[in-house]
Specification:
InterPro entries: MlaC/ttg2D (IPR008869), TAT_signal (IPR006311), Tgt2/MlaC_sf (IPR042245)
Organism: Roseovarius marisflavi
Shape: globular
Largest sheet: 5 strands, antiparallel
CATH topology: Nuclear Transport Factor 2, Chain: A
Radius of gyration: 16 Å
CATH class: Alpha Beta
Number of helices: 7
Number of strands: 5
CATH superfamily: Tgt2/MlaC
Protein name: Phospholipid transport system substrate-binding protein
Number of domains: 1
Oligomer: single chain
C-alpha cells in the first residue's frame, strides 16, 4: 500500500517518542556503541511491526511495548506537562504517566498500517554534551527520504531515548502542545485532563 504521508504528517502521526523536561546533565557512561545498539533495536522492532501485517489492534499493542521498553517514559511524561509538572501531585503524575503511555500507543500505533512498504535505517551516532544523537533515515513510499534523529541518555540508569527530531522538529515539543491544549480546555484541572487523555488518541 502506498503511503501518502507528508513529512509533517509523519511528525505528528508517526512515531511519537517524545520528551525531556530538562536536558540530561552529568557525565554519562553511555558510549556511541551503546546508543547505536539501543536505536538499532528500536528501529528493528518498528520495522518488524510495519511489515507484520497485523490488524490495527495488534499494532497498537506492539507500539506500546516498544515505547515502554525503549523510551524514558517517566521523563517524557513530565516533559510533556512542561511548567505544569511543578504543580501536579505525585499521585496525579503517576496517573498521568499511565494515561499518557496508553494515549501514545493509541494515537500512533493505529497509524502503522500507513507505513507498510517503508523502513528506517540507522546511519551514524555522536556524543552531544551529555547525551548521544543517533541519526537515521526514514524511507516511506511516495516520499523523499528524510532524517530522523534519536536523542539517547542513560540518566534513568538504563540506555533510553528521550526525544526524536525529524527535520529539525522535536516530537517532544509537538506532544507538549497537544497535552497543554487538553489541560487548557479543562482550565488547568489535572484530573479532568487525565480522564480526557485516557479516551484520546
Amino acid at each position: 500500500m502506498t503511503s501518502n504521508l507528508s513529512r509533517r504528517h509523519f511528525i505528528t502521526t508517526g512515531l511519537a517518542f517524545s520528551g525531556l523536561a530538562a536536558i540530561p546533565s552529568g557525565v554519562l557512561a553511555l558510549t556511541d556503541a551503546r546508543a547505536r545498539t539501543l536505536v538499532d533495536a528500536v528501529v528493528s522492532d518498528i520495522n518488524r511491526v510495519i511489515a507484520s501485517g497485523k490488524p490495527v489492534s495488534g499494532m497498537i499493542s506492539d507500539f506500546e511495548r516498544i515505547f515502554t521498553r525503549y523510551a524514558d517514559v517517566n521523563i517524557i511524561a513530565r516533559s510533556t506537562l512542561g511548567a505544569d509538572a511543578n504543580r501536579i501531585s505525585s499521585s496525579q503524575m503517576a496517573a498521568f504517566t499511565k494515561a499518557f503511555r496508553g494515549y501514545i500507543a493509541r494515537k500512533y500505533g493505529k497509524r502503522f498500517n500507513e507505513f507498510v512498504g517503508g523502513r528506517i535505517e540507522v546511519n551514524s551516532v555522536k556524543a552531544v554534551k551529555s547525551w548521544h544523537e543517533v541519526k537515521s533515515t526514514a524511507y516511506l513510499r511516495g516520499e523523499s527520504p528524510f532524517e530522523v534523529s534519536f536523542l539517547v541518555s542513560d540518566r534513568s540508569g538504563k540506555d533510553l531515548f528521550f526525544d526524536m527530531i525529524i527535520e529539525g522538529i522535536s516530537l517532544r515539543l509537538s506532544e507538549r502542545t497537544e497535552v497543554g491544549a487538553m489541560l487548557d480546555r479543562r482550565n488547568g484541572d489535572f484530573n479532568a485532563m487525565i480522564a480526557d487523555l485516557k479516551k484520546a488518541g
